[in-house]
């Protein structure tokens, strides 16, 4: 499926897709073929340089950086996939309901969205994370809650003129169901923008989890998470800058890859 779509992608999007796939292959391959525990401490091997036993060296506790980087990437991909799927389904469904029903339903959903938008997204995530510190589920819920409003606003604005348009009204008069009308008339119009939002949403999810990790409100040690790894290794930037560079480069490449992938509206 991806290979068939490759020719329609711009060069920047192909580069973004290649970056994301490269990191995904590394994350999955490390988990499948590299038998090392990312949390096992070997203090005698602290700050060990890269070797055949530890391809990326060891951190201040002697933990294998290759295993920790693979685990951190898998965690970031998992969170972004869950957040994008949840927010996209919720936002698209709510946007279609608001556009189709109108009236009170649309006003209520608009009020909910405006209430959520009244708080900065990062503040909302910090509030949720502070309720249950170190909870992956709370991070997932908080980030999904901030992401779905963009889908809602986009889908409602795009779908409303289509629902009142002659083509969809003709299908309704011919007794075609709403699900058929959605698939035939609405989804083709909103799909490119939804895919673009999904790519941006994946990057936002990853950078948000890393941001709360910077302030120790997100996942807790010894979990291998990119933001947490960066803040833990920051104290040793002068002694072992190559260690700090590893999670920084991984985070940069992930976010860059998804942003490049979202660069074109027609996938």
Describe the model:
The protein has helices at residues 2-5, 11-33, 65-101, 103-117, 121-131, 136-163, 166-173, 178-214, 226-233, 241-261. By secondary structure, the protein is mainly alpha-helical. Helix 3 packs parallel to helix 6. The longest helix has 37 residues, at 65-101. The relative contact order is 0.15. The model has no long low-confidence stretch (mean pLDDT 90).
Name the poorly predicted regions: none
Q: pLDDT average, as an integer? A: 90
Per DSSP, the total helix count is 10
The helix/strand series, from N terminus to C terminus, equals: HHHHHHHHHH
Q: How would you describe the oligomerization state of the chains in this entry? A: single chain
Helical fraction equals over 70%
Largest pleated sheet? none
The rounded distance between the terminal residues' Cα atoms is: 12 Å
Number of strands: 0
Gyration radius from CA atoms, angstroms? 22 Å
Q: Roughly what fraction of the amino acids lie in strands?
A: under 5%
The general outline is elongated
Q: What class, by secondary structure content?
A: mainly alpha
